[in-house]
Amino acid sequence: MVVAGATGVVGRTLLPLLRRRGHHVTVLVRRVDRLDCPTSVDDVAVADLLDSDGVRRELCRVAPDVVVDLTSGIGRTDLTDGQRRAARSRERASKNLVAAAAAAGATRIIGQSTTAAYRPHGHDVLDEDSPLWTDAPGCWGDAVRAQVAVEEAVLTCSDAEGVALRYGNLYGPGTQYAPGGAIHSRVCGSELPVVCDGVGLTSFTHVEDAAGAVLELLAGGEPGAYNVVDNEPAEATEWLPAYARMAGGPAPVSLTLEQARTQLDWLTVHQLTEQRGATNFRLRETLGWRPKWPSWREGFADLFGQWPG
């Protein structure tokens, strides 16, 4: 198989798991010096994903049965023009990878996506049939549309089975929630408040569960989209104070919705007040998948060395 994006937080977790399962793994990187775990792979393919001919040439050389794309995904910072352009580049790169995988004879393509792309609706958690927010405002809308285009390329590929794994907020070692990460710094700096009259829900995904879902879907499961999240979507009024306490930071300040709109960027307000969580029912019922970290509570505690297990 070929894994693109192996140097990311999910890829670094996935590679040793693949090795223990006995898979022959080729990583696709733009530069060899980006690979920090050469003992976990069998081969290295070098190509820039924006170079369609180069990617096709390398994948045809390797001839993988499965291609795993962990390069795409949008995060809370995708609001600036520069990061909007980056989202479009990821879209083009992922489409090149899908086309190259099909040309190389791959039978299954697994792509990374996000539950953050769902259109907020009502007060229920959302399943895979819920609409994606392709008409979201501003740069966030551009980022969502780019992500949706990547999903469509994977799911509609006529020459291979396509699987889209929609992760929640990724946390664990090396993520923005780990010590020194962006969320950790914002919370410890009292820069991320709770909105007392907001009802936004966040679904979390530990990087170990993100990688574990890839393992489950390498050969099993029907093509399609799957939410890969824990069992407990949480309001910010619940998870933020708990996270701050475990991280050793100050308790988050509390703002009204009006105050939040004047003091915070649009995306942060949306996430704290309108975003809906996602359900992992499809993945649990069709594959018997169970998250190693069923709740962010245990996962956060482990992240800060407070979980006895």
List the helices and strands and how they pair.
Blueprint (H helix, E strand, L loop, with lengths): L1 E3 L4 H12 L5 E4 L13 E4 L5 H11 L3 E4 L11 H23 L4 E7 L23 H18 L5 E7 L1 E3 L10 H7 L5 E2 L5 E2 L1 E3 H10 L7 E5 L5 E2 H12 L6 E2 L1 H7 L2 H8 L7 H7 L8 H8 L6
Question: What does the model show?
Answer:
There is one protein chain. This protein has helices at 9-20, 52-62, 81-103, 138-155, 182-188, 207-216, 236-247, 257-263, 266-273, 281-287, 296-303, and strands at residues 2-4, 26-29, 43-46, 66-69, 108-114, 161-167, 169-171, 194-195, 201-202, 204-206, 224-228, 234-235, 254-255. With 309 residues, the chain is an alpha/beta fold. It has a 7-stranded parallel beta sheet. Strand 4, helix 3 (81-103) and strand 5 form a beta-alpha-beta unit. The mean pLDDT is 91.
Order of helices and strands: EHEEHEHEHEEHEEEHEEHEHHHH
Q: What is the 3D form?
A: globular
Overall structural class, as computed from helix and strand content, comes to alpha/beta
Task: Give the mean pLDDT.
Answer: 91
End-to-end CA span: 33 Å
Which stretches are poorly predicted, pLDDT < 50 over at least 5 residues?
none
Got a strand count? Answer: 13
Approximately what portion of the residues adopt beta-strand conformation?
A: 15-25%
- Biggest sheet statistics: 7 strands, parallel
What is the helix fraction of residues, given as a range? 25-40%
Give the spatial strand order of the biggest sheet: 3-2-1-4-5-6-11
Instruction: Return Rg in Å.
Output: 19 Å
Helix count equals 11
Q: Name the quaternary structure.
A: single chain
